[in-house]
Amino acid sequence: MLKINDGAVKGEIEIAGFEDWIELTSYAWGGSQPGSFQTGGRAGTEGKVAFQDLSVEKFVDASTGIIIEKMATGTHFDKIRLVQTAMANGQNRIIFDVVFEHVIVTSYMTSGGAGQGAFIPESVTFGYTSFKIEFERRSNDGNRIAMVDAQFNLRKQEGG
Length: 160
Prior knowledge:
mainly beta, Pnp Oxidase, Chain A, 9-stranded antiparallel beta sheet, two-stranded antiparallel ribbon, 11 strands, globular
């Protein structure tokens, strides 16, 4: 699920606690480190990390117009929040939570075909200057094991 500018951009989810969030069918995000142990000393060489844009797949919804407008004008969102939830102890809990700041829409694409009905798919990618991530590890019975977190500022190339 995705939330833009603390809910100022509305989606259409009706799940308790996540009303008006944007429903995603999938997302992809990651990074790469060009460093190598084949060159350099004992620790190898360290390169400049390259994080990918956040890529999301969704259906056309109430958020579509503003997303296209932001891409067309090159204006940014202050922040977007990506969460993954799972049922734990009978409740829908956030287990993966990433907040991206100073976010621009770097691409938008939709596609269609005969017989797809009212659900029109779209792909959106977001660029950003920083992120903070939290991941809650849980046991099979739903109890919390540990909280893992990280943050990084791409402009400064530093974590925190």
